[in-house]
Amino acid sequence: MLPITADKIAEIIILARELDRAENEFDGFVDQLNDDEKAGIVAVFWIGRGSFEAEELAEALMTAAREATTPTASYLKGSPHLADHLEAGMAALGMDPSEAEDDLYRPA
């Protein structure tokens, strides 16, 4: 089971698309995630870029937790295609990234 919600992933995608103006907000949001959520976002990223298959989620989560030596926000910002990889990872895991992103803009 993925330890991070679709809404949190969508928030990271939105912030990643705006890194030039929202880097501090991106860093703050990612830094406040707990360790399991950080491993989850890295696993989704890896699945989206093809390092793991969706069926290997448990292995991706364990690897992300075990290999976490760099701050997660810094690691993720190292990819110029971060938002695209996260969207692809969500889709591979059966989540609709556009629906999750739209939910963040829809008034409650």
In short:
This protein has helices at residues 6-17, 19-31, 35-49, 57-66, 72-77, 82-92, 97-105.
Topology:
Layout lengths: L5 H12 L1 H13 L3 H15 L7 H10 L5 H6 L4 H11 L4 H9 L3
Helix pairs in contact: 1-2, 1-6, 1-7, 3-4, 3-6
pLDDT < 50 runs, ≥5 residues: none
Note the main sheet.
none
Q: Roughly how much helix do the residues carry, as a percent range?
A: over 70%
**Cα shape:** globular
Terminal Cα span: 27 Å
Rg (CA only): 13 Å
Figure out the total of helices.
Answer: 7
Question: What integer is the average pLDDT?
Answer: 92
Secondary-structure element string = HHHHHHH
Strand content: under 5%
- Give the structural class: mainly alpha
Instruction: Tally the beta strands.
Output: 0
Describe the model.
- The protein is mostly helical.
- The chain has seven helices and no strands.
- The chain has helices at residues 6-17, 19-31, 35-49, 57-66, 72-77, 82-92, 97-105.
- It is globular.
- The model has no long low-confidence stretch (mean pLDDT 92).
Protein traits:
108 residues; mainly alpha; 70% helix
